[in-house]
Structure formats: C-alpha cells, structure tokens
C-alpha cells in the first residue's frame, strides 16, 4: 500500500461529505513530545487495521502512527464481522500503540480505554452523548432508541505493538443504514458532523487517556479508567445474554467491570461469572 492524501483528490460529488484535510490534521495533532507522529489519509483501502498491522510488523510504522481511510471495502469488526459505509460518511482509522511500560496482561484494557476516549472526544467535539456497550461498541440515542454508531477492534502487531481500529458512522442517513439497529452522529442530533475537528478531538482524548494509563503502568484504578468506563457503560445494570466461544451462552445481570476489564454477570443461580470474551446482547434493564 502506498498511502496518499485523500484531500489531494477532488471528489466533491457529495457536498455534505467533503474530504478530510490531511495537512490540517497533521498540523493540529503532531507536536514535539506528543503521542502522534504520523498521520496519513488514504482515499480507499480494504482495512486500516490490516494495513497498519502489516506496516508495523514490517518495521515501517512507529508508535503514534495514524492511518485514516475515506472508504473501507473490507473493514473489520469483532468475531470476523465486516464494516462498510459510503465514502466519507464516517471516520475509519487505526492507530499504533506500543505500551512497553505496561505489563502485557493489562493490554486488554486498551479497547475499553479507547471507548472512553472516543466517548469523551465525541462529547467535546460533536456534542453528542455516546454510551459504551461492553466490550467495544459505541451507542447513540436515535428517536429514543439505542443504536450502534461505531465499534473498536484491537489487534496485536508483532511482539510490542497493538493496533486499535475505530469506525464511527458520522453522517449516515436513515436510508443508508445497513440494519435498523444502526445509527450515526447525525441521526443522534450531533451539533457538529465536521469530521476534521471530530477526529482531532477523538485523537487528543485518546492521547490524554493513553498517557494517563501508561503513567500508571496500566493500573485501571490508579488511572481512573475502570471507574470512568463503568460510569459510561450502558451494559451495566442490564440483564444480558453473553454468547461465548464454543457455542455456549449465559444470562444474567451485568453488575461490574472487574480489574481485568471483564464483564461480571450475576446469574439466576447466584453465581458471579466474569466474561472475558463474547458477544453481549442487551435484553432489558434489571
């Protein structure tokens, strides 16, 4: 892949969806002593996560690299799901992190940390409240209903790196929704859907939270991450069904996020069972 600025292409067929300004993003994000070192915007690619994992594995990307695509043709979600959206209708980007100071067992907090950072950034830059569905979905309210407007995917990149991918539907219209349960910032009444400042706001928030977590050597209590994630998690207090690997499922009330970032379910049998991986279905409020 040879990245090139999407802003170099004069693709203005949809005036409501102007291209990102790569040069302005670099000016606003790259600074001495900061986390972000490289910001590349490409017009179209299969998956920013796959591209950045490949670059990192080949030693061609450094910590703080950001890869943004105006369109993804093979965007990836958890459990091998795909993510597609019209060109320039959202923010589809990946970042490379190298949390060398943090013990590897605590790296599992990175998707949750990213969720907190994205929710904080969207509140500041887009004026929209975003709730977190454990472990990696971003929820907005459209017409009084919870809708998924984004997701997060973390992948290892060699022995030392982690690539975090984020996809957010920004200006997706009602007639463009892939499923009725989907949403977008625009449909949720965002005060701004200008993707440049929204992306800058998210990345600045991610830099802030990542720095705080890394300075605490990944301790979710000392960094404030565990408390903040729990406060914004729409899954807690709900009766949910956890669909687990191996075609097993359990149902119970989501009562806590434990120190390892796992969702703790209180089952009808009186057992508290931590869930570290799986698909969570919100059933109702407890």
UniProtKB/TrEMBL annotation:
Residues 34-214 form the BPL/LPL catalytic domain. Its EC number is 6.3.4.15. Signal peptide: none annotated. One of its GO terms (molecular function) is biotin--[biotin carboxyl-carrier protein] ligase activity. Transmembrane segments: none annotated. InterPro entries: aa-tRNA-synth_II/BPL/LPL, Biotin_CoA_COase_ligase, BPL_C, BPL_LPL_catalytic. Keywords: Biotin, Ligase. Coiled coil: none annotated. It is an enzyme of class 6 (ligase). It comes from the Bacteria. PANTHER family: BIOTIN PROTEIN LIGASE (PTHR12835), BIOTIN--PROTEIN LIGASE (PTHR12835:SF5). This is biotin--[biotin carboxyl-carrier protein] ligase. It comes from Streptomyces machairae.
